[in-house]
Amino acid sequence: MLKLSVLALTVSMSVAAFAAPQKNEPIQPIEPAVVTDAAKVELGKQLFFDPRLSKSGFISCNSCHNLSMGGSDNLPSSIGHNWQEGPINSPTVLNSSLNLAQFWDGRAADLQEQAGGPIANPMEMGFTHDLAVGVLASIPQYVQSFQDVYNTDTITINEVTDAIAEFEKTLVTPNAPFDQWLQGNDDAISADAKAGYKLFKEVGCTACHNGPAVGGNSFQKMGLFEEYVTDNPAEGVAGLTGDDLDRFKFKVPTLRNVELTYPYFHDGAYWNLEEAVDVMARLQLGRKLDEEQISQMTAFLKSLTGEQPSFAVPMLPPSTAATPRPVPFEKLAE
Amino acid sequence: MLKLSVLALTVSMSVAAFAAPQKNEPIQPIEPAVVTDAAKVELGKQLFFDPRLSKSGFISCNSCHNLSMGGSDNLPSSIGHNWQEGPINSPTVLNSSLNLAQFWDGRAADLQEQAGGPIANPMEMGFTHDLAVGVLASIPQYVQSFQDVYNTDTITINEVTDAIAEFEKTLVTPNAPFDQWLQGNDDAISADAKAGYKLFKEVGCTACHNGPAVGGNSFQKMGLFEEYVTDNPAEGVAGLTGDDLDRFKFKVPTLRNVELTYPYFHDGAYWNLEEAVDVMARLQLGRKLDEEQISQMTAFLKSLTGEQPSFAVPMLPPSTAATPRPVPFEKLAE
Ligand code: HEC
Ligand code: HEC
Ligand code: HEC
Ligand code: HEC
Ligand SMILES: [Ca+2]
Ligand SMILES: [Ca+2]
Ligand SMILES: [Ca+2]
Ligand SMILES: [Mg+2]
After folding, report:
1. Which of A24, A133, B156, B170 is at 20 to 30 A from B208, Cα to Cα?
2. Under an 8 A CB cutoff, do A67 and B308 touch?
3. Contact of A99 with A216, CB cutoff 8 Å
4. Residue of B75, B260, B326 with shortest CB distance to A75
């Protein structure tokens, strides 16, 4: 099916030739975010950066999905509450709105459902939804923002996660060199990147990494031709379904901004993109690429780095006398 | 001396009357930052936000001096490498360029000298200067920036701390309502704030909290009329000099943005500004203020919240294959 559609696209391309404003390819450009409710996005941005949604008062969404670093923490596994080691690599939040579901195993249907997870996860923010909502409800500027955006006097976790999700939807990265090339600017990417993209299609990477996010739209088994050897105990989708056929099925990660989201794979075991490309070709496609091919493919992957979301560091409204205090150290626990 | 100068100012004020563009007071407005080397400031900003200056790859200057939260962490004592509890409350970096010296005990002469401390402090970023410099030297964009700004191919800790300090010098907060009032806009602050300011001068707070930073320009004993009771073992300046006369002498903190820099005092023991005002009046001046006075003084202190530094979240250049990897968990240590 993949081969067919590539063929069909090739034909239509040669017809359209230079007149076409946009190439027909298995990868489509990222569309810029359309903001319909700026106040909601602004509120979500504050919440994303607010460490008071954690028990310690120290960890925010941005701690593990650092928007200065491609929306990830660039660690093999995350540091959570009390310096606990997380179970799995932190995926980027960039373009996560394009995912068919959230988390490596897809256990959250959408961004709003996802956002409730980390706040109450004892390994991550270590808090509870009630306590987090209690903190927000004690801060008049937050109360006012929720009133303005949701027309309600009572904040619940639903508005909190909705606002965060709405902010996350703005975290798309359009206008990558590769997108400029897709849109007809032949000089936007190097000859190496072009050769790498050709190879990316030819060897079959696009079977799993396609669409605007170059991934994010299917679950696939990691290790089709060779087993993926790892210490990490994650089972993938099988952890949810209990079905042995789902063992080691993970959501195919987006390759958008993959230059920034090292280390790679669900266990964060590979730091270099070249290594990740080599692993993929061998394990998923039974192909051993040579050094030049790997280098070309890496050049292509780097052309997927788009415009990073740019906005002013958000200002957080101060706590009040009524705000429950953070509990950074256990000995201070109630 | 204080009384004399206040008197002198009062006289000159009544002469200048409404013609004066700026009132003569023991507190002067904050001047906006003058940026002479924008590239250096930009580099310093990246370094301030870069967690790769820490052993774990997780903690940046901004972790403990969060510019979304008044340049502090709003915790009694900071969370450092491996979730270690810091020894003392984290002061704001806002307006810290106005301090006569850095740290509660003044042990660093200036911002550049200060900036070397946390990187190599095992309780804070847990790294070494050599390793931090090694990380930067492995990242071509950083190498280029240091080349552009310092005209050198060899990064040393001196350029790193110089750039950070240059960024910190831009973290001033001009145009607070109180400054607008000082500059002649009578409506910029409330009647309560005006009454609070009058009281602030009358009872003698300005003896220690004066100048543009409303503090930061002298070391003073904490607990003059009554002892300050605390579990915190910090000795203040005596920790440096060994002189018993210096026991419990701390740098007088700036009261600029004090609304944002809770909890208060070197041990972070007081969360509410009203309580801090009460403690100060009793311990430093032997005065018991009534509720209305405290409320007025707090209204004045809140009028010292200035324009917070506003800039886009900095983008950090990605690590390379040559970049030493972070060591977030000890079991991964070399
Ligand atoms: C302590 C680290 C940590 C914190 C804090 C954290 N996350 Fe995550 N995040 C992770 C990890 C690890 C995963 C992957 C978990 C999994 O797939 O099982 C993840 C997954 C996600 C995903 C799914 C991305 C994808 O492609 O599947 C989104 C979206 C996300 N986080 C957003 C958030 C938001 C919003 C917050 C704050 C409310 C937050 N995260 C807080 C570490 C963290
Ligand atoms: C059969 C499906 C499939 C094919 C074909 C495939 N991939 Fe993947 N890719 C995945 C899955 C699943 C993962 C996540 C695996 C994991 O983390 O354990 C992944 C992960 C990656 C990653 C790491 C992304 C990250 O952020 O961690 C890169 C890079 C990558 N693939 C590139 C490629 C390249 C290049 C090819 C072709 C040579 C390719 N993939 C072929 C399914 C596939
Ligand atoms: C783990 C928490 C933590 C980190 C990380 C941290 N600081 Fe600090 N900072 C503190 C604490 C606590 C103090 C007060 C220490 C003292 O006075 O003994 C302080 C003091 C300061 C001061 C002095 C302010 C004053 O008024 O005296 C400045 C300036 C400063 N830090 C800047 C930085 C910079 C720049 C970095 C990064 C290179 C940094 N800090 C990293 C916690 C931290
Ligand atoms: C004799 C000197 C002196 C006088 C007078 C004085 N202060 Fe202070 N002030 C200090 C010192 C020193 C500290 C830091 C003490 C510590 O942290 O242990 C401080 C701290 C504070 C703080 C907490 C700031 C922070 O960020 O932690 C506030 C608020 C404050 N003073 C307000 C006042 C008010 C209001 C008055 C008058 C009622 C006053 N001060 C009078 C020396 C003084
Ligand atoms: Ca990763
Ligand atoms: Ca100097
Ligand atoms: Ca404080
Ligand atoms: Mg929904």
Report:
1. B170
2. no
3. yes
4. B326
